[in-house]
TrEMBL record:
Pfam families associated with the record: Aldolase_II
SMART domains for this protein: Aldolase_II (SM01007)
InterPro entries named among the record's database cross-references: Aldolase_class_II_sugar_metab (IPR050197), Aldolase_II/adducin_N (IPR001303), Aldolase_II/adducin_N_sf (IPR036409)
GO function terms (MF aspect): aldehyde-lyase activity; metal ion binding
GO cellular component, one term: cytosol
Protein name: Class II aldolase/adducin N-terminal domain-containing protein
Domain Class II aldolase/adducin N-terminal intervals: 14-205
Biological process according to GO: pentose catabolic process
Alphabetic keyword roster: Lyase, Metal-binding
Amino acid sequence: MPDNSTLSLRTLFSTFITGSHILHQQNVLDAYGHLSFRHPTEHSHFFMSRYIAPGTISSPSEIIEYHVSNAEPVDPNETKGYSERHIHSEIYKRFDSVHAVVHSHADAVVPYTVSGVPLRPVFHMAGFLRAVGAPVYDISDYRRDGDKFDMLVRNEHLGKGLAEHFDGGVGVVLMRGHGFTAVGGSMEEVVLRSVYTMKNAGIQTAALTQRAAWLGYLSEEETIGSTEMTQSTVTRPWGLWVREVEADNLYVNNA
Ligand SMILES: [Zn+2]
């Protein structure tokens, strides 16, 4: 897995733009949702796109640098950003090891946020979901007087409540009536986790509709082994996905 601390900002901007395109092409993100990454040396800063659909970002000039402490832009005159950036800031604040975050509304995953059926790993590419299943964050547990009811994680206390669900090495947290958030040590890793969270949800749903007598979820040992496997092979799907977005002229990367 790439170590962000040794990579230049220019390289990371290019990876960020390509990663945003991959997440769109793979249907993890549509016009909504976002990728972010932590500054490789200034760990109290992170980067996100300005307020545009991830598939359309094309230039480093469209990337905004934020403070981890409060999710405010480093440049106070910066253009408009996403309203849910506290998802990202509160996770970076709580976990030094996290260097990239994805927030998605992928429709295959949403049923598992509202049904009480745990999203559990049904194949080896999703061992990071853990044998017990991905925890579910219920925003209503964290709302305070004055908070909106639009389900968005708009402030520090709502983001902190979400971040706490990643304690103990959790890689993906579901969000009731909303979607999911994934974390990783690199953009490549968090993109892989996001894609395979969505694929696992589709496969699990297909298995459940078969009215099977049982479902052979991965065991605890199998999830650990599979997680190690995907971490050591992330460059293979990443290389394919990069070529796929390069071959599609919707996506432009000028970094
Ligand atoms: Zn959202």
